[in-house]
TrEMBL record:
Keyword annotations of the record: Membrane, Transmembrane, Transmembrane helix, Transport
Protein species of origin: Nakamurella leprariae
Protein name, as recorded: MFS transporter
Location (main, coarse): membrane
Composition bias type Low complexity, residue spans: 1-15
UniProt-listed InterPro entries: Atg22-like, ATG22/LtaA_families, MFS_dom, MFS_trans_sf
Membrane topology: Multi-pass membrane protein
UniProt entry tagged with the keyword Methyltransferase: no
Compartments where located: Cell membrane
Superkingdom per UniProt: Bacteria
Pfam families per UniProt: ATG22
Length: 453
């Protein structure tokens, strides 16, 4: 959950009183802060590597003179699509086995470390198309490792919150991701990218050294802010031995749980499927937005960082304002309105040109991203039956990974057919599919209709 993949209203430390645990004790505030710092640090991968800096460097500089008819943008889309497929196949197993074996914190540490290692490896991707394949490989591996880490990270939410406080704690995480992304992007822009000679004397002319050093800074940032959660949030106890199943048996457990959920409340299953689609579209907006800004709309590689900062601010504001409407009108209406606005704005972007038009309509697009993300989580929280919240949010994460290859793959396909601009159509189709799948889903009861547990 970071600037590239999350959104939510900001929250200050004063809004986060230590929530009472089920046994009447209080959860230490340091655990909540430490958990949020991982989100702050994770912006290094999502905002800097995947969205606004290194992906642009990879497609606009490293792959600029790539021979053949297939563009670097298309190869990036396919690489991330393949990574998404791997995530879809393995994520249910990694999350389930970590929880059953009492290794949630250990799993978070391992996958975070591997993500950081992939980011460090990007330092060796020089400004030459011969290094494009190394960059694509490391981007793909980093995406896989990061998604696995996020499965364990999201599962920790229930450890450092209670039902009455889970919304505020979760919003604190969203806000930390946004602010962390903004701070790090500013450091990267003014410290390394904008100056002709950046900090430590690095320059872009030296085989893209300034951008490669940014990858090292981002890796160090993520590693540093990931440490507190590994030291303060306790490991979960292992589950019963009967729940510790093998690789293939994990899928039987998954399908069994989905079947039981469908028999109990099929609209919840329908929402899981619909949200998996439109969340993939939301992620694609951040993944390919900066790339399109440079290759299609003519924004300079330096200025795209400023756009990224503005996009984070706008998304956070959108989520904050939408929270009011969420409480008054319900999350479904917020999601439907947000997806409709995004689709309409993306259609406009298909036909306009130039940096000015991208700034206007790109930021309008980002205005709807935060509300769609935050209302989606609220929707599921209100659907969750008492005692089954953890299972439901686990399925939420799993179904999201199950189609995480779709938008990148369609972006790559349409880019191959009609150029990079047409890749927008692939994102539109995924958002539209998610919207149409959501329309028949019964919305959750308003908060007043819930009976306190």
């Amino acid at each position: 959950m970071s600037a590239a993949s999350t959104g939510g209203p900001s929250s200050s430390g004063s809004d986060l009183p230590p929530p009472p645990a089920s046994d009447g004790t209080s959860i230490p505030i340091r655990q909540i802060l430490s958990w949020g710092l991982w989100d702050w640090g994770s912006a290094a991968f999502n905002a800097v590597i995947v969205t606004f800096v290194f992906s642009v460097y990879l497609t606009d500089e490293v792959g600029a003179e790539l021979p053949g008819s297939i563009s670097a943008n298309t190869w990036l889309g396919w690489a991330l699509g393949l990574a998404g497929f791997v995530i879809a196949v393995l994520a249910p197993v990694t999350g389930q086995r970590a929880d059953a074996g009492g290794r949630r914190r250990a799993s978070l540490g391992v996958w975070t470390s591997l993500t950081v290692a992939a980011m460090v490896g990007l330092f060796f991707v020089e400004n030459d198309y011969h290094f494009l394949w190394l960059g694509l490989l490391l981007m793909g591996l980093g995406s896989i490792f990061f998604e696995f880490a996020e499965v364990s990270y999201n599962a920790m939410l229930r450890q450092i919150s209670t039902p009455p406080t889970i919304g505020r704690v979760s919003a604190f995480g969203w806000a930390m991701g946004y602010v962390g992304g903004i701070v790090l992007l500013l450091i990267c822009y003014f410290g390394f990218i904008s100056p002709d000679v950046g900090l430590f004397g690095v320059t872009f002319e030296d085989a893209g050294l300034s951008i490669r050093v940014v990858a090292l800074v981002a890796a160090a940032w993520f590693a540093l802010f990931a440490i507190p959660v590994l030291l303060t949030v306790p490991e979960i106890p292992p589950g019963p031995k009967a729940d510790r199943v093998g690789f293939f048996a994990s899928y039987r457990v998954l399908f069994r749980d989905l079947g039981a959920l469908y028999r109990r409340d099929r609209h919840t299953v329908f929402f899981l499927g619909a949200s998996a689609l439109f969340r993939d579209g939301l992620a694609a907006v951040f993944t390919f937005g900066a790339v399109l800004a440079v290759t299609v709309y003519g924004i300079s590689s330096d200025d795209v960082i400023l756009f990224g900062i503005a996009a984070n601010v706008v998304s956070a504001i959108g989520a904050l304002v939408a929270g009011v409407f969420d409480d008054r009108l319900g999350p479904k209406r917020v999601i439907v309105a947000s997806l409709t606005g995004m689709i309409a704005t993306a259609v406009v972007l298909l036909f306009v040109s130039g940096p000015g038009m991208f700034w206007i309509f790109g930021l309008i697009l980002c205005l709807f991203v935060g509300p769609a993300q935050s209302a989606s989580r609220t929707f599921l929280a209100r659907l969750a039956p008492a005692g089954h919240e953890g299972q439901l949010f686990g399925l939420y994460a799993t179904t999201g990974r199950a189609v995480s290859f779709l938008a990148p793959a369609l972006f790559g396909l349409f880019s191959l057919i009609g150029g990079d601009r047409l890749g927008i159509v692939g994102i539109i189709l995924v958002l539209l599919a998610g919207l149409l799948a959501l329309l028949p889903v019964r919305p959750p009861a308003p908060p007043a209709a819930h009976v306190p547990a």
